[in-house]
Amino acid sequence: MEILKNMKTVIELLSRCEASKVIAPHIPYSEYVPLDLSISNPTIHHLATAEDYGVFIQKHLEANAGKIAFGGYQEIRNLYQRSRVFKADNSEERNIHIGLDLWINETASVHAALSGTIHSFQNNTALGDYGPTIIIQHDLEGIVFHTLYGHLSEESLNEKQVGDRIAQGEQFANLGLPPINGDYAPHLHFQIIIDMENMVGDYPGVCSSTRLNHYTTNCPDPNLLLKIN
């Protein structure tokens, strides 16, 4: 019940915040285009590698005169099946994305959505995982929550300390490239997390259908803060 209460409060607080850009802030939202990577999109069923997805996303951007492709919150995807992080023999498959992805196909600057302090960071090195990851803790009107930034460069973790202050809009990282970024086409995974549930440097960004209600409650739509459309 406490997480549900805090979710409602966080949603209310974020709805009052001005739009925040977390990647390449010189690119206007008018050059963002939606991207469907769900299982219902038949044009991606043949894609397998980071290079495949990179080519597909670049063509999508060019066809729509865009610079950044975005989407993915609560999207059911097949692209995780190559990784035992998400599909192992002894556990339920995780294939529902609970963050928002920003695909740009090149390295780019990453910026804090709001002011806060570094909660934790680590390199999640398994195939298909986040790669280098930084989590920032925020406090708005006494309500604590977190933002997670995944698929960063290894250099982004250098000289970081837990508790370091990060200002809203400050560049604190850069996007990583494959295979360092978990072996994906370059993109930022951005996620809002209310309760970190004692996790450090990592938090699920993809869940199973039976856990969707829990993660939807703990991880509200990141576009509440970004306000892309």
Summarize this structure briefly:
With 229 residues, this protein is α+β, with helices and mostly antiparallel strands. The protein has four helices and twelve strands.
Cα Rg: 16 Å
Q: What string gives the helices and strands in order?
A: HEHEEEEEEEEEEEHH
Specify the structural class.
alpha+beta
**If you average the pLDDT, what whole number results?**
91
Number of strands: 12
Helix content: 10-25%
Largest beta sheet: what is the strand line-up? Answer: 1-2-4-11-8-7-6-9
State which percent range the strand residues make up.
25-35%
Shape descriptor reads globular
| End-to-end CA span | 30 Å
- The unreliable regions are none
The main pleated sheet reads as:
8 strands, mixed
Count up the helices. Answer: 4
Describe what you observe in this structure:
It is globular, with a radius of gyration of 16 Å. The protein has 229 residues and is of the alpha+beta class. It starts with a helix and ends with a helix. It has four helices and twelve strands; from the N terminus they run αβαβββββββββββαα. The strands form three sheets. Strands 1-2-4-11-8-7-6-9 form an eight-stranded mixed β-sheet. Strands 3-12 form a two-stranded antiparallel ribbon. A two-stranded antiparallel sheet has the order 5-10. A hairpin with a 2-residue loop joins strand 7 and strand 8 (143-150).
